[in-house]
Amino acid sequence: MALPPPDPQFVLRGTSAAIHTLHFSCGSQEPAVPVLFSGSENGFIHVWNLKTHRVDTALDGHGRKSVYCVETMGGKDQLLSQGRDQRICLWDLAEGRTAVMDSVCTENVGFCRCSLLKVAQGRWLMAMAAKALEEVQVLELPSKTSVCTLKPEVGAKLGMPMCLKLWQPNCGSQPLLLAGYEDGSVVLWNLSMGKALSQLVCHQEPVMSLDFDSEKAKGISGSSEKVLSIWSLNEQQSLQVYKTHKLVNAGISDITIRPDKKILATAGWDHRIRIFGWKNLKPLAVLDYHTATVHAVSFSDHKIPSERLLAAGSKDHRISIWSIYTQT
Amino acid sequence: VCFIPDGLDCSISFVSHVLGKVCVHGRQKEILSVLVPRLTDLTKSDCIWQRICWRLVECVPDRWMEAVVLGFVQRAPRADVLSRLLGNLVVKNKKAQFVVTQKMLLLQYGHTTAVLQNLLGYLALDSLRRALLIKVLKELLETWGSSSAVKHSPPEQQQYISKAILICLSHLKEPEIESCRQELLTSMMEGVKCHLDSNLPQIRHLGMIVAEGISSKINTDGPVLKFQYEEDDEARELKSLLVQTPPFCVVPSPPDDENDKADAALPGVLESNKKSHPAAPVKPEEESDAELDSDDDLIPYDMSEDKELKTKAPVYIRDCIEVLTGSEDVDKWEATVKALESLVRKNPAATREVSVELAKIVLHLEEKTCIEGFVELRQRAQVAILTTDPIPVAKYLTSQFYSLNYSLRQRVDILDILVLAAQELSYPKSHGKTKHSDAQKPCIQLLPASDSSKDWRRIVDERIKSKTRRFATGQSQVERASGPNEFNSVAGHFFFPLIQHFDRPLMTFDLLGEDHFVLGRLVHALAILMYLAVNTVAVTAMGKALLEFVWALRFHTDSYVRQGLLSCISSVLLSVPAERLLEDVTEELLETQSWLGDVVEKDPDGDCKRLALQNLLLMENLKKKLKTIPS
């Protein structure tokens, strides 16, 4: 007899707006406090103290426009946030400061979350949707120089890029970009040449979110339909569909694979968070707490496995924190 | 009575005379109760006694023949006994033939089913008499199929004839059916038509059952006629008449059938077991192919609650309108239909803004997906809309009742909604949710209708209560809280438009012609509206108009319509205050009274007669009441 699904360990309230993005920063040693960053629809970024479960700081940098992406750049003192005011802001949060150090004007009115990849100490690559409809631009941070612009070929009709993932096959080799587009296809781009290496049509509807496991060269994408698509990358760098999984209700907003690559979580439009085993996509749990669409899920980066957490942010203004499958 | 059989020639005519005379004087029971059993025994195996018996009845003079034959047919226990007793009397004697084939079947209808079985079985038993059986069947079918007979004869007679037809059919053999197949078919078609045309459900059922019986007999191979109706006791009894059980048959087949069925069931079970086994081994193999990995350490949680998300119903009335008129999303449409009534009741102000439009949409609402209780949901939503904003919606609905291109179902729906809404409006509001009973036939009860008492009455009562010393309190009755009668202001709007255009035929709708079904429902609806209008201001005007309406239609041929007209009169007598009746409505009352007397005497329908009698009694009571009140 299977156990009923667990309840959230705790719930963070106080944003008074829908939450669109979450990011943990718990890797630092004691006495540093584990922290969760959340971006809301009212333009605020809240820094949650995971010990007291209260907001430590609220950052207002996007002119009250919705913040839909937050990422840390090496520790919790440097934050990157992306908002609907067409800006990507870089924050300096060390020693209690709340200042915007720098900002990039994207001139893009879409919802595509940018993707960060650390390539060297103090240097990052950031891929973001560019001004033109189908283009993706890759910048180097913090210099803000453009590395390349990825344009699909004429007549490809991919639509807007919906989600991006930068990754490196092994350390030091050339970074690659996986992009999910509005027409349901996932494209693998080579950044140095600026060319598409492979394209795979995974869904009939726009790809809402994707995540990639570079060790196994396997990725997963979710869409507004009822199907999850798992695809793999073979030696020739071409994408193939590996498996599909049918869901009970349509619509996935976010997918994330846990850093230990054991499980993954999906955020659904049907208010539910689903946990799957990554190896075989075995359904493990359905967490039904929220009362509106879940917009974001994120796993924490705790060093000690038993402390690992899963956070889910929803349109109902709550962030639920779960402790699930922490024994493995 | 003792006879000497062997060799002696005796004359029995004297005995016949005696028998006849006794029977005709009404003493059939006494003499035949002795005679028939004795003769039954005697004639069981003895041919001579049989011949004596036949002689006995043949010699009865014609003027007494009817009584004797009737007595015999009624007293004989079985058809073969009757055959032994009467022999071929019906063939030889004209009077006996008339009695058996005409009088007992077509002119009388009080005999029991057993008597019918005996009579028709008797006709079937001898080859000489079988010709009569077929003749009888044809005549019965002619009566059954004649539309005037269906309209004007009492339902009991129609049931009797139907039984007789079914029994005749059960006796017919193949060659006989072959010879008259065409006639059977023709009469069945005609008969079914006039039976289904009737407003009384009992007549319709009779028609359907008999038609099914005929069809099953004439189409032994190929598709048979099958109607949909409620299987009540009467239907079962009639259907059982179609099959004749021979008196001495043993019941052999069921045990064999059961064994066969059990045998058939077992192999089925074995097969299915076998099938499941091959399936099972395949699965473990598949699983063992998969790698053993650490994923197996992760135990899934219980995911049985993970079901499809239900669509929410809209929360605003205008959203409902949008969904019902345009939306392709069937889940949303379903949720809207289910939630509509409660939404309308919770948002009266919002509903009043769009009431007529909403009423129009719901009136034309067709079932898009299969929802349980769709008709009831639609009706309740319409009643809710009508009670929230009575005047404009009533205006709309009554105008649509007389418009072109509506189906009968929609027109009858309009009547039902008006009646239910009137009922709700005229009941005291604090009652909470009143039960909406489907008021098709209003029962005439002498109940006091809802009071709209004013505050002053309550204050005076309390003052009196406080000032009087009570020696004993009787049983205290819970007094119903009262409020203003909401039906008062709108009764006229419900009633008068309905009564206005009944004699104006339209292209697709002719109340006085073919659509007498709707006319019947209209009349009943008017009776209920009249009844509910008690204590309203417009009641006298309504009563006057209704009596004139009744007068115009009083000779209608449909008995359902006449019953409705009589209920209208009852409602008028109950609702309109007696003083107003005498002062303003006198001529109409007198005319109605004379018509009621006519109905009591001459109407073929028993229900009509009963209703007319009740009305006359009501009038008498009214007169008495007025005489006792000192003026």
UniProtKB/TrEMBL annotation, chain A:
InterPro entries: WD40/YVTN_repeat-like_dom_sf, WD40_repeat_dom_sf, WD40_rpt
Keywords, alphabetical: Repeat, WD repeat
Database matches in Gene3D superfamilies: YVTN repeat-like/Quinoprotein amine dehydrogenase
Superkingdom assignment: Eukaryota
PROSITE patterns found in the cross-reference section: WD_REPEATS_2, WD_REPEATS_REGION
WD repeat placement: 200-241, 287-328
Record Pfam families: WD40
Annotated protein name in UniProt: GNB1L protein
Species of the source: Alca torda
UniProtKB/TrEMBL annotation, chain B:
Family matches, as PANTHER family: TELOMERE LENGTH REGULATION PROTEIN TEL2 FAMILY MEMBER, TELOMERE LENGTH REGULATION PROTEIN TEL2 HOMOLOG
Lineage: Eukaryota, Metazoa, Chordata, Craniata, Vertebrata
Region (Disordered): 268-296
Protein name as catalogued: Telomere length regulation protein TEL2 homolog
Protein keywords: Cytoplasm, Membrane, Nucleus
Cellular compartment(s): Cytoplasm; Membrane; Nucleus
Ranges of biased composition (kind: Acidic residues): 286-296
Family (UniProt): Belongs to the TEL2 family.
Coarse class of the protein's main subcellular location: cytoplasm
Gene Ontology molecular function: any one: telomeric DNA binding
Pfam families, alphabetized: TELO2_ARM, Telomere_reg-2
Domain TELO2 ARM repeat, first and last residues per copy: 129-224
BP-aspect Gene Ontology terms: 'de novo' cotranslational protein folding
Domain Telomere length regulation protein conserved: residue ranges: 314-422
Record gene name: Telo2
Gene Ontology CC entries for this record: cytosol; membrane; nucleus
